[in-house]
Amino acid sequence: MILQHALGLMTHPDDEWESIEKEHAPPTTVITAYTCILAAIAPLCAYFSTTQIGWRVGDGALIKLSSASAVELCLLTYFAMLIGVFALGWMIDWMAETYGGKHENNAASGIALAAYSSTPIFLAGLALLYPAPWFNLLVFVAAALYSCFLMLDGIPIVMHIEKDRAVFFGGAILAVALVLLVSTRVGSVLIWSVGFAPEFIGG
């Protein structure tokens, strides 16, 4: 089953990348059978914790989100994650030829690299069950660092790029990922300004 790759990437990434390359699943399978499922972890956990548990900032009062507001924000977050993985995958494929890698019409390898490298970030969504900002920050920073490692580790195997070029290619990919992240943040502000701002309620 394709979801088994999640455990493999967390325990023995080199072998798992080899398996992913041999499998060479089409983008639709990677998105629907892997990304759509794992990307749902964070929104579901965030919905439960922000509406049922709540959080505090310092010694302040307990804060929660209204159910309607939480649903809106979680859905927006979910679709932003899916679009981000898909867009990053296409950009990886588009840039691959520049670094001596393979280019495919359906961007299968690029999307696979983006999706599977994001596994630690998807799984880090479980940390949102404990809605403490400092704890969530630490977990997601650690997950992002491991995702960077996975991507650098997987580039030579999945994209067929020499290891000396893989570092530079990885830097280019991370630059694109940062641009996508900033675009998402800007998009969040714009969406909040047209009526989707969080609705906070007391605990």
Automatic annotation (TrEMBL):
Domain Yip1 positions: 8-183
Subcellular compartments: Membrane
Keywords of this entry: Membrane, Transmembrane, Transmembrane helix
Membrane-spanning segments: 31-49, 70-91, 111-130, 137-159, 165-183
GO cellular component annotations of the record: membrane
Membrane topology: Multi-pass membrane protein
Main location: membrane
Protein name, as recorded: Yip1 family protein
Organism: Dasania phycosphaerae
